Task: inverse folding
């Protein structure tokens, strides 16, 4: 059974550039998840982030990175391919985000709708020889390159690679659904198509 970590706890929204994409998600639970690396070179796209997929945190009290008498920088990257589906809290500045990410908005007013669907998530384009390692739902941390608490074990730091962004992006109030596949990044596709079997249609609006 696939390991699932976390859950959505607040109303969220997803922005899309085309009405057909919004309909696919709101009516059928279908969505495209991009790989972390695909965000590195998105020319003229506000989603471009060359640090996506890299977690960075400075912490002087983490045993596995402790220096002699000084703080050290922790940097983590994933060896497996990771794909993300991004949402923002419904309480965020939707007008600003819509101008950057797309004017069609899918509203998940009751987060339990997605939480119930995630365990039955289906990947429609799972590459041959790959399996789903884990699915993680997480609120994005906006502390990349800052000092913060990591945890007592190196495994606690691994999710930083796909749940952390820079402080300047905090206005996005982002949540992520991350799917980690088996195998190396080499040869993995740029995106995967998934279906979340939602129990009832989601509300859609246009900014």
Result:
């Amino acid at each position: 059974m696939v390991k699932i970590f976390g859950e959505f706890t607040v109303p969220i929204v997803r922005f899309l550039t085309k009405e057909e994409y919004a309909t696919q998600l709101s009516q059928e639970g279908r969505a495209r998840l991009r790989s972390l690396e695909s965000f590195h070179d998105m020319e003229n796209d506000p989603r471009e982030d060359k640090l996506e997929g890299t977690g960075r945190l400075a912490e002087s009290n983490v045993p596995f990175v402790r220096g002699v008498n000084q703080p050290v920088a922790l940097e983590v990257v994933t060896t497996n391919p990771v794909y993300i589906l991004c949402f923002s809290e419904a309480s965020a500045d939707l007008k600003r985000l819509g101008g950057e990410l797309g004017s069609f908005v899918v509203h998940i007013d009751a987060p339990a709708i997605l939480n119930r669907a995630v365990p039955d998530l289906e990947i429609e384009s799972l590459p041959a020889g790959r399996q789903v390692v884990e699915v993680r739902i997480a609120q994005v941390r906006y502390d990349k390159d800052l000092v913060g608490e990591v945890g007592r074990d190196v495994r606690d730091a691994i999710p930083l690679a796909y749940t952390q962004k820079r402080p300047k992006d905090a206005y996005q109030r982002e949540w992520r659904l991350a799917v980690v596949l088996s195998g190396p990044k080499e040869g993995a596709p740029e995106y995967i198509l998934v279906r979340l079997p939602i129990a009832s249609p989601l509300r859609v609006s246009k900014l």
The longest strand covers residues 82-89. Confidence is low (pLDDT under 50) at residues 61-67. The radius of gyration is 17 Å. Residues 3-44+79-142+167-206 form one domain.
